[in-house]
Amino acid sequence: MMAETGGVTKLDVSVLNAEQQEKLRQFKIKTRIDNERYLRSHPEVDVLIGDFLRDVLHKQPADIREFAADHFSNPNLEETILPKMEGNSETN
Predict the structure, then answer these.
(1) Is residue 56 part of a domain?
(2) Bridge partners of 11?
(3) What pLDDT, in 10s, does the model give residues 28-40?
């Protein structure tokens, strides 16, 4: 069963039995660990997202989807990100 709260769908885990709830909890933990491991092994993700968010907040585009598409399909994106990656590795 799902409940709507301010446009966000929230799952009602109380309909699951104890075993299902434990499996769900373990799945969530494993997913978080896997995601953290991936992000740690790919520091470029942090630089890409940080650069994108700075650009969004600075320019405040009216059409965020179009802005995101343009930002991430920029043929010069690698040249923009690489110096920032090198700067991050020096501070870590």
Answers:
(1) yes
(2) 2
(3) 999 999 999 999 9
HEC assignment per residue over the chain: CEEEECCEEEECHHHCCHHHHHHHHHHHHHHHHHHHHHHHHCHHHHHHHHHHHHHHHHHCCCCHHHHHHHHHCCCCHHHHHHHHHHHHHHHC
47 lies in some domain: yes
Residue 32 inside a domain? The answer is no
Number of domains in the chain: 1
Query: How do residues 45-73 score in pLDDT, each as one tens digit?
Result: 999 999 999 999 999 999 999 999 999 99
Q: What is the pTM of this model?
A: 0.65
Q: Give the domain range for residue 62.
A: 43-86
